[in-house]
Specification:
Chain lengths: 119, 107
Amino acid sequence: EAQLVETGGGLIQPGGSLRLSCAASGFTVSINYMSWVRQAPGKGLEWVSVLYSDGTTHYADSVKGRFTISRDNSKNTLFLQMSSLRAEDTAVYYCARGAVASAGQFHYWGQGTLVTVSS
Amino acid sequence: DIQMTQSPSTLSASVGDRVTITCRASQSISSWLAWYQQKPGKAPKLLIYKASSLEDGVPSRFSGSGSGTEFTLTISSLQPDDFATYYCQQYNSYPWTFGQGTKVEIK
């Protein structure tokens, strides 16, 4: 069965950088459509970024130019490199796997990792 | 960006009640809509995709309908495990966007 485990969250100062990881098992990251979705404390869900199997990426306007999604095929792991972090980036970050037929249908989710941006 | 508006924001209901949640899109999204259930401290769980397709393993008391700009999630007979927050999500165009959520509470 597909499993996703996020790591890398923590407390970071404004303007800092952090890299989140999402280790996958039970399926191959490189041939699937993988996304990051975040949720600020007590708030709703916000899609952040998607990485297609062909390498195409898309980002929410709120993170464009600051966040980069990537993968390591040898480690079967998805990443989110976050830089120029702001207080409003504070959230639980989930990785999610999209469907083969439609990348935006999130059938599998990780448990999430908390990123807190604060001085 | 496509705005997704859910109503109501909070819903109080009893076990056995029929519950309906509405999601409206600011422009047509065809049937590219999903519904998720989220419990406190947990990741969201996919219930419905392509507006009306039931995810594997999800009880048949959950159903979805609609197309274009108006969608509904119906729980035919509310069970104790169903008290949670529900989100709709459009994936017709970028950025993919979620509704603000509907919290289903015990009456």
